[in-house]
Amino acid sequence: MIGEKRFWGKGIGSETISLLSEYAFNELSMRKLTGGAMSSNKPMLNIFDRLGFVREGVRRKQDRVGSAFVDHILFGCFRNEFKSLLKP
């Protein structure tokens, strides 16, 4: 989570998830990675989509945001689906 709003929109989240995914697939030989985000967190949903993660499910009204409940979107990604954002 990037709590400091002044760092939002600078690609830090994308780079972090990409680096961690590269490490998990290439160094740890992971077969599949999973993750999730609140449906209200559009930037994180976009990061998962850009990296090749596939939406696998929804936990309806799982997370509380203020006085409202929002869905939690579940993602999965196999090694052959992953699209690294790192430059070669």
Question: What would you say this structure looks like, in words?
Answer:
The chain is an alpha+beta fold and 88 residues long. It contains 2 helices and 3 strands; from the N terminus they run H-E-H-E-E. The protein has helices at residues 12-26, 42-50; strands spanning 32-38, 54-65, 68-78. It has a 3-stranded antiparallel beta sheet with strand order 1-3-2. The chain starts with 11 loop residues before the first helix and ends in a 10-residue tail after the last strand.
Write a concise keyword list for the protein shown above.
88 residues, alpha+beta, three-stranded antiparallel beta sheet, 2 helices, 3 strands, 27% helix, 34% strand, globular
Layout of strands and helices, then pairs:
Elements: H1 12-26, E1 32-38, H2 42-50, E2 54-65, E3 68-78
Antiparallel strand pairs: 1-3, 2-3
